[in-house]
Structures are given as C-alpha cells and as structure tokens.
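Review box. Two proteins, two foldings.
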Amino acid sequence: MSAVNGGDLHHPAVDAVLATAAGLVGMEVVFVAGLTDDEFAFVRVHGQMPGVEEGRRLPRSDSLCDRMLAGAPASTADAEKEPAYADVPARTAFGITSYVGVPVRGHDGAVIGTLCGVDRGRVAVRDDVLPVLAALAGVVSAHVNGADHAVVRRTATGWHVGTDTEDDLLAAMVLADLLSGDLPPTTRPPRSEQAGSEVEQLQVAVSQLQHALVARVTVEQAIGVLAERQHLAPRTAFERLRKAARSRGKKVYDVARLVVASVNDPTVPLPPELAPRRG
C-alpha cells in the first residue's frame, strides 16, 4: 500500500478542501494523513493542536484513522468512552475527545490516506457531513501521486469517488480549481455558538460545494468550445481558459459563461486568446 506522499498536496485546491472541511466539522484541526501498512503521517494540517504537525509520524496502529478504517465509527464526540477508540495511543497522547475521518483512495481504489478532524473538546459531527467530507477527500485524491484517475462524481445518490478516463481527471481538476477560487476560508466557530449556527454553517459549506459542482458543467462546456474552436486538447483548453481569467482578475466560471454564450452570439466580448481563430 502506498501513502499520500506525492502529488501537489500544497495546491490551493487542497488548501480549500481543508478550509471547507474545517468549516463543516468545526474542530480544532483538520488534516490529510498518509498511511502505509505500518506507518501514519500528518501530511497536511489545517489548524493548531500541540503535537499535531506536518511531517510527524506514528505507528499506524497507534492512530484513530487505523481504527476508523478497520470499521470503527466514522465520527465520535467522546472517544474516551467509545470502545473502538478508547485505548488508541494517539487519543491519549494528543488529548483527543472528538474525531471524524474518511478515507482517501488511490487510482486503484486502495486506501492511501485519510481526511480527518480532531478536537480536544466535544464536537458532534452530523451524519450528513460525512458524504460531503468523502467528496472533499476525492479532490485530495486528484492531487495525489499524479492521481491520473481519481475523480469526484455527483450522481442521483450523492457524491462519489470514481475512476476511469482523462475526461474524469479533467473534471476533477475543474472542480478543484473552482473550490480553490470560489470557497472562502472558513474558521472554527466559537464554542459559545449554538447548534443552530453550526447547522447554518454546514448548509453554507454544502451550498458552496454544490455551486462548484454546478459551475463545473459550464466550465466543461467552455473547455469543449475552446478545444473545438482552437483545435486544442481539453487539458490545454482548460489551462488557457484559467490563464485568461486569472490574468484579468476574473473567476474561471465567469469567463467560461462568456465562452459558452459566444457560441450563439458572436458579439459577446471575449479575451483575444479565447476568440475563434480566423482563416
């Protein structure tokens, strides 16, 4: 089994994933961990907790993530009294009371890491947060070891990590870019806030992810237009679209809308590098 130790895990999209996950779970620390058969490592860390730092390694069997992957509850607000977590060395070492985790998978479906949250206080995580965390873990997968096949798909039953084609990789890249550009950093809510505020925060975060998923459709349509219009590979078309947007201080989605609109209305103003080629 390979660990989450490659790829661009310092990409802004991964930062957005961690910030979004932090807003969803409301815990002190959210992190991406790498796992091998024997070892656990903190690869990316959002937030602060004594001892939880990027690069720190533990025996895999000492981690809460190992227990979660072995079938323990995906979340708990009282790890000390949860039989599956009570005797985990990391729980006592870091003073962890609350935990939530979902797997990060490689292109072959094997677990290579986790996306997790921990807190020294009692923080309950709603059940409907877990599939959203799983979708965010899919974005992390898209940046691991090149992740040539890891993608996030939305189906009638929710968000899913899947595998397959270059088109899927492009879809994951588009979603990751939208997350990094459109989702503002979120912060841990004060403990004095009431449950209603936490629910509202969850609703906002889910709404933002849904917006990114919907916006992805328009961006992918624009990529198709540019690919045909300028005889480009889809990946090249996406990079050109993104470069044109960023050089003008605009969001990719807003420029993509103009590209799509220009198909039926040639008077729509476009950046010169995105306009139809003449001759």
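Next protein.
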Amino acid sequence: MFVSFTVAKYSGRNILFGFLSMAIFRILFFLKNYGVVFSKLMGSGKNGTFDIEPDLKQWAYMWVWKSEEHYENFEKKSWVMKYIRRFSTEKFTLFLKPLQSHGLWDGKNPFETNEKENFGDNESIVVLTRASIRIHKAADFWRNVPAIAKNFAQHEGFLYSIGVGEMPFFKQATLSVWQNETFMKAFAYRRKEHSEVIQKTRSQQWYSEELFARFRLMGHAGNVPVSITEF
C-alpha cells in the first residue's frame, strides 16, 4: 500500500481553481481511476490542526494507491496533476507507508495493514487523526479543541501539521509530522490538555466515526516545509 498526501496552495485569481478542484478531480477520477483505492479531497484550516476558520488558499488531496508504480504513472500522465501544476502557486507531497491504523473512515479502514514494523528511535513519524463529529456535540467539540491547537506547534519534536476536512465543522482531520515516536506520544498521552480532551471524546461520545493512523515517511517532493527537510 502506498499513500500520497499532497498540499497545494493557490493565490490571486487562481484561488477559485483550488475550490473548483474539489469537484473537477472527482470527475477526472471517475473517468480514469489510475489505481486509487481510497481518496479524500479536503479543504484546510488556518492554524495547522482542527480549525473552524478555513484557509481558502490551501487544499489537500490524499490518495491511497495499489502500488507506488500506480502513483508514478498518475504523476506523469494525469490531468489532475497537470491541473495542480498549472493553477497552484506551490505544492508538496508526502509519501507515506501505513504501519498502524484503527477506526473507520466512511465505514472502512483504508490504511489497514498486516505489517508489524516498529518505528526507529530517530525515525520521523506521521500521524493522521480524523473524526465525524455528531451534530448535537459540535458545540462541545469546538469549545474544547482550540486550547490544544494553540500549543500544538510548541511541543518538542513537532515538525509540521495541517488541519483538513471534507465538511466544515463536522468532518475534520489533522495530519502531523514528528521527529520520532517518543515526542509524538509525549504530546498525545502526557500533555494534560490533550489527555483531558481525549477522555471527553469517549465519555461524551462526540464522534460518530473516528480513525487514528501512523505512517512511515517514505519521502517527499515539491515545496516541502523547511521544518521537515531540516530534520
């Protein structure tokens, strides 16, 4: 299994093309699949994690491929990539290998794997958390999440994050990159604010569906954030 996560930024008059890509890419993939087994076209928030304020200049495209060769063929020949290259100001792609995943996304686990590899002590780790928020729990969710978002990027070992979503307010996800698994776990399980929110999601049943996945960062291309390339 091979996963690509692309972030494209649009500016000026081309901002409209970022918005239109959400519909146009669905049509293009309907006409030719290119070996995609799961895909998500998503908008993004402004503060690098779950965010109620959208960033209309930045859009994310995540595709799960049958193989790396399928992605390479897509990169070279597809109208989707030609569209991104033509209208975006800059873009970058992270290439990911799923190692651990539990939960569901639209009724399936797209990153489920039988491999039992562990992360090395100095190996960067990519984490994806996503959730479908119950409509009657949305107010509670958005009252609690900003406290975490403010301190997210200040934690030791943090390299990059982006908050994305299929639907404003109710279908949200965060992809984050960490120097290693130790730093990631310190944030996820030992930071008081974060652990308290995790407990509330369970006790108050905020989500109708959720998924948590960890990936090995296999490589990257394009205008990758400096924080990732310097590590």
